[in-house]
């Protein structure tokens, strides 16, 4: 899978693009008409102007941009956000400001990255018992900090 069909609600500058030769994620840009200011702790749903047709057997994952997270505390709230192959609406990104200063998002800013991955569909089988493992039912923190 190398081809993703896209439809842009706006102009071509909102087509995702890779920032370096071997980048795994393509940048998603804010397709907004007015600046959006995020105060600390505030979140917003940001339009990207992008609709796409993901091939069956694949998903798109929306992830944070490391620079925004490290420098400003801006991240994707439901990371990674999953876009299923049968979704045809506009891709939107839920950004949250976990930093301590206001942050302004402007039209065309790179706000997140998108990665495409194969999907494995599971078949669920109802059983009365499961095999015992060494870990057992140990959950959060059970293997150490």
From TrEMBL:
Stated role: This enzyme is involved in nucleotide metabolism: it produces dUMP, the immediate precursor of thymidine nucleotides and it decreases the intracellular concentration of dUTP so that uracil cannot be incorporated into DNA.
Family per similarity comment: Belongs to the dUTPase family.
Names of the cofactor(s): Mg(2+)
Keyword Hydrolase set for record: yes
HAMAP family the record matches: dUTPase_bact
Catalytic activity: dUTP + H2O = dUMP + diphosphate + H(+)
Binding site for substrate: 65-67, 78, 82-84
GO biological process: dUMP biosynthetic process; dUTP catabolic process
GO molecular function, one term: dUTP diphosphatase activity
Annotated source species: Spirochaeta isovalerica
UniProt-recorded name of the protein: Deoxyuridine 5'-triphosphate nucleotidohydrolase
NCBIfam families noted in UniProt: dut, PRK00601.1
Pathway membership, UniProt: Pyrimidine metabolism; dUMP biosynthesis; dUMP from dCTP (dUTP route): step 2/2
Record domain dUTPase-like: where: 15-144
Enzyme Commission numbers on file: 3.6.1.23
Keywords: Hydrolase, Magnesium, Metal-binding, Nucleotide metabolism
């Amino acid at each position: 899978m190398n081809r993703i069909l896209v439809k842009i609600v706006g102009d071509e500058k909102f087509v995702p693009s890779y920032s370096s030769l071997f980048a795994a994620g393509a940048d998603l840009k804010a397709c907004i008409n007015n600046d959006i200011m995020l105060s600390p702790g505030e979140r917003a749903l940001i339009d990207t102007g992008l609709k796409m047709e993901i091939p069956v057997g694949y998903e798109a994952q929306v992830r944070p941009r490391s620079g925004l997270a490290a420098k400003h505390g801006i991240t994707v709230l439901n990371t990674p956000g999953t876009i299923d192959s049968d979704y045809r609406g506009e891709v939107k990104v839920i950004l949250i400001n976990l930093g301590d200063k206001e942050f302004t998002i402007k039209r065309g800013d790179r706000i997140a990255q998108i990665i495409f991955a194969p999907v494995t569909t599971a078949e669920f089988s109802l059983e009365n018992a499961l095999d015992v493992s060494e870990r057992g039912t140990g959950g959060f923190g059970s293997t150490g900090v």
